[in-house]
Amino acid sequence: MINKKTNTLLALIFTIVIAIFTSLAARADGMVVDKVYHPYVVANEQSFEWRLMSSQTSAENVLAQRIGYGQSLLEDLAVEFFIIGERDETGDFKLQATEIEARWMLTEQGQYWADWGVLFEFEKQRNSDRYEATTGLIFEKEFNKNSLTLNFFAIREWGNDIQNEWELEFRAQYRYRYLPELQPSIEFYTGEDFVGLGPGFMGVHRFEGQKQLKWEAGFITEVSHKGKNHTLRFAVEYEF
Questions:
Q1: pTM of the entire structure?
Q2: All structural domains of the chain
């Protein structure tokens, strides 16, 4: 829980970050399209998650998957562990990296004019001296049946097998909560030489207690350059 003064400070940070990302978001590289994070954490929750990202361009076809297990350590803090696999240049699918992720919910849902959270990630590439650390700000605003979610990420890459550098990424999702099981959206992503836009869908099916199954999908097309560049993302998460 945060007070009004802190909430005002977060609003100021949000405004500054928007200005920074508007001018610098084109510095990120790699596979920019991925999950749009929401700031919420449920106490005593555990989860299993599977994600798939398939990116096709005129020059290559990239396929990546990740499997994760998560658990809330506190009522506002959740940690998740991932193993990441990618298809290499020979067509074989191999374990590529491991990752740990932490989400901290800064505000209770609906307490203030918007909901806030932060994200921290650390990734280690397998069989190479490459590391990646991510920190990010998560924003979500609900009005009637509409939701606007924004992710701002600063990424640091380092190691002997990669150029040491800072990167920036931005993700946005406008979602209409038509039904719990069917919520169409429009998603927007930016990164180095990449500006992507496309439709998305997500839904949740609730069982007894706090057990629920979430799913989401999106088809993003690169719009800043000519040529083929499409990304399909899909994710399923079981929470209990």
A1: 0.84
A2: 4-239 (2.40.160.40)
